[in-house]
Specification:
mainly alpha; Serine Threonine Protein Phosphatase 5, Tetratricopeptide repeat; 2 domains; 11 helices; 68% helix; 0% strand; globular
Length: 246
């Protein structure tokens, strides 16, 4: 086994690869279906192996918790035809309670030990979502506070965008849109569909349906997953007909 700095760096790379494997399974970027359960399961299996070999590594613990808490929502993420169902509209009774319990147990044993890393913080955010009995009951102030901490240890464009969503849920859509303008001016996430998708959602929350429609169309044109494209175009169409997709 490598030691010292070399060991830490190699572990960081291994965990990042496992994270990417799981994410590709959770939202496929190259297949017609929304998610690849087999690939997500493989990411979890390999992370379990890492956790078995390195049970005292807080970030291994955090990554496994993050995967379990995220994958727990998979049964409710798509409808009968494979269509995407966003978290706010999911039937939480279909979430995997056993996976949530295991993820929460990992957080309880791992968070108090040593410095808190990005996977632990992401797991804590996922836990707040999973523990909420409904979308309306989500503790957004706590999620925003966790994203503030996450930005200090992992100042990435995706984290900054997610923090913007939390900000909008706490302080209103205008606060989120102002922050989105700043992120766009900084050149964050160029060519990524998530930024215009978030903009569309916040504009819809604010009541500007015409601008939201255009932003949804921009996001759909940038999305690489067919199911996401269809969902975003359905949202755009719903704003012109007055009926958004269920």
């Amino acid at each position: 086994m490598p030691a010292g700095t070399q060991r830490r760096e190699r572990l960081r790379v291994v965990l990042h690869v496992l994270y990417l494997i799981f994410n590709e399974g959770y939202v496929s970027t190259s297949r017609a279906e929304l998610q690849r359960a087999d690939l997500a399961a493989e990411g979890i299996r390999l992370t379990r192996l890492a956790h078995a070999f390195l049970p005292d590594e807080a970030e291994v613990n955090g990554l496994l918790a993050l995967m379990l808490l995220t994958d727990a929502r998979r049964p409710a993420r798509s409808g009968p035809s494979g269509e995407l169902i966003p978290m706010a509209e999911q039937d939480r009774g279909r979430w995997d309670a056993a996976a949530i319990d295991e993820g929460l147990a990992l957080i309880r044993t791992g968070l108090p030990e040593g410095p808190v890393g990005p996977y632990q913080l992401q797991a804590a955010i996922a836990a707040v979502h999973d523990e909420a009995p409904s979308a309306e009951a989500t503790d957004w102030p706590q999620i925003l506070a966790l994203y503030e901490l996450l930005l200090r240890v992992s100042e990435t464009p995706v984290v900054a965008l997610n923090r913007t969503v939390a900000l909008a849920m706490v302080k209103g859509p205008r606060a989120g849109l102002d922050r989105l303008d700043a992120l766009e001016a900084e050149g964050r996430l160029p060519g990524d569909h998530h930024l215009p998708a978030v903009r569309a959602h916040l504009l819809e929350m604010e009541g500007d349906h015409e601008a939201a429609h255009d932003a949804y169309e921009v996001a759909a044109n940038l999305a690489t997953n067919i199911r996401q494209q269809r969902y975003l175009r359905a949202r755009a169409a719903g704003l012109t007909t007055g009926h958004t997709p269920e």
